[in-house]
Amino acid sequence: MAQITNGIRSVLSHPLVYSVLQSIMGAHKGRQKMVDNYIKPFPDMKVLDVGCGPADILGYLPNVDYYGFDVSERYIESAESKFLNEGRFFCKIFDDSDLAVIPKVDVVLAIGLLHHLEDEEAADLITLAFSVLKPGGRLLTIDPCLTPSQNPIARILINNDRGQNVRNEMGYAKLVSEKFDSCSTDVVHQRWIPYTNCFMTCTK
Q1: pLDDT for residue 15 is more than 80
Q2: Cα–Cα distance measured from residue 189 to residue 116, given in angstroms and rounded to the nearest whole number
């Protein structure tokens, strides 16, 4: 996993600091957009969230069957304290061994994850996501995205992200193309604190 966690970026390892900064960056609107336009939850929907962080998205997903994985013990502890009995959380990398533990799911979330992964790591994740999805299930991703016409401030912020594998729209689509035949991308430019994200929907 290619990311920078030293210097000023190290404070983002603290769950509260991370969540507050995300809120300042407009995460509430982004999560609501993700839920309304992409996840489209229904009662008892099975959701696997890989790289869930403090699982803030769960606050927007009532009555779902939620499984969250993250390697950060601090993030998982925060998620468990906020969402007691609302989800199941695992402090580990999601890997082959978990396919026997997690039921087939309707949605796999990889929110802000792919830009932290090298191509080979991303390919492994995408293969696992495909395996754990029900037929017709969806892999949903959001990641910062580079575009020629984006706001210069957005480009500066994205180039200073902890993740060291930020791609353009075509780069993200290429990652999933070998496994998913059906994939759509949506590049969104945020105005408040300029930023650019690429949303992907990949259907099994």
Answers
A1: no
A2: 20
Q: How confident is the model at residue 6 (pLDDT cuts 50, 70, 90)?
A: very low
d(CA 45, CA 134): 11
Name the amino acid, one letter, at 61.
L
Residues contacting 76, CB < 8 A, separation 6+: 68, 70, 89, 90, 91
Residue 135 has pLDDT above 70, yes or no: yes
Tell whether the model's pLDDT for residue 1 goes beyond 90: no
Instruction: Count other C-beta atoms under 10 Å from residue 52's C-beta.
Output: 28
pTM score, two decimals? 0.86
Per-residue DSSP letters for 97-123? GGGGTSPPEEEEEEET-GGGS-HHHHH
Angle (deg, nearest 10), helices 73-82 and 15-24: 70
Q: What was the pLDDT predicted at 186?
A: 95
The full set of domain ranges for the chain reads 7-203
CATH for 7-203 is: 3.40.50.150
Burial of 55 (0-12, 13-18, 19+ CB in 10 A): buried
